[in-house]
Design brief:
With 99 residues, this protein is mainly beta. It contains no helices and seven strands.
Length: 99
């Protein structure tokens, strides 16, 4: 059973055997975005609005960008300076959605 992509990876499960495998999705350097794909709208250290939730609710908080990015890019964000980085997608300048 293949689950939808989450945080840059997919999860494959086999309930009958009881195992689960998470595979990260990466792209070769040849497919890296260039400046022709739009301007960088977020720089490392910028404050972002972090949004997550479902159809019936959303949770909004502040975070700090841990990498540069353009609208549509997946970038790392930290909720606290010492906390772990999580990955989300820039939906517009200053806003990142965690899926």
């Amino acid at each position: 059973m293949l689950e939808p992509p989450v945080a840059g990876g997919v999860i494959v499960r086999c309930p009958s055997l009881g195992w689960r495998l998470r595979a990260l999705l990466t792209f070769p350097a040849a497919h890296a975005r260039t400046d022709t794909m739009g301007p960088i709208v977020v720089r490392r250290g910028d404050t972002l609005t972090v949004v997550t939730g479902a159809d019936s609710f959303s949770v909004v908080s502040a975070g700090i960008a841990d990498s540069d990015g353009r609208v549509g890019d997946r970038v790392k964000v930290k909720m606290t300076p010492a906390g772990p980085a999580i990955v989300g997608q820039l939906t517009d300048p200053g806003t990142i959605r965690i899926f």
